[in-house]
Amino acid sequence: MSYQQIAIEKFGSASTLHVSDLTPRAPADDEVAIDVAYSGVNFADIQMRLGFYPDAPKKPFVPGYEVSGRVTAIGKAVRDIKVGDAVVAGTYFGGYASHVTIPARQVFKLPASVDLAGGAALPVNYFTAQLALFEMARIRKGDRVLIECATGGVGVLAIQMARHVGAEVTGLTTSPHKKGFIEDLGAKAYTRDEFRADSSLRGYDMILNASGGAQINWQRARLGMTGRMVCLGISSGVKDGKRNFFRMGMAALQMPRISVIKLFNDNTGIYALNALHVLRDPQWIERLTQSMIGVEQMGLRPHVGKVFRADEVGAAHAFLETKQATGKVLLQWTSAN
What we know:
The protein is of the alpha/beta class and 337 residues long. It is 30% helix and 26% strand.
């Protein structure tokens, strides 16, 4: 059986990505080998491809944070996973491949409520939402929650998770035709421009921001007393998948420098979340992996917006970076057939 991978060999447009051969390796004592069915595509992958992701390895490297598939081999110290198990795994780079060998602590059995495609839509989205909503913002019943990235993979799960605990949820989108999608998830829906123009929409207990840049200040002003904002990134620095240093630089310059003295007057808080850094800590990996039981307890349903063949990776990136997607975009390998 031949195995393949997709590496970032140079920075640039989606057309720079291509499939190449991969030589798999046997698992070490504490590792698991997986034939991959689906690889998740994340906005961070686009930033890596453009050269705007400081945590990325040196070129060439294989991007990808998550996969689903079936276990083909295990190390002799592995106890909870066996050959043949359907699993989901966080890969923390290396996920754009038809076969991965990774530490067993990053692998968990596929929840019974989702299929392999849905499984590949879980790790990054669920861990990010879990950290933002419950570890940082500590939302609870009755809270008013604003999800800026409401139609993306993180946003879809964040809406469901917030509603599960009894929060009142509002979702934003830049595309008017996606408002119905947000409403179907049980949240109020506005375009970002509509929401910004209506100054009566304020008093939120938690805001999840993904665009960064100039969007942070006006959104932060909509927090209520003791409200918390969690920032996930600077997606406003990228448009249409083009490598634009000026746009990224402007987005970074427009990020507010927030004074603690001023926060005393506002009685609000702001967090910045880099889930990759959290998931470098073995204790947090174990903690978040154990929290995956929440997928079934909360009845979460990841939304797979579109599946591309692995050799269509360029089209997959273009689909995501031009904001055509709702939910998760996946790459499908032949082992999914």
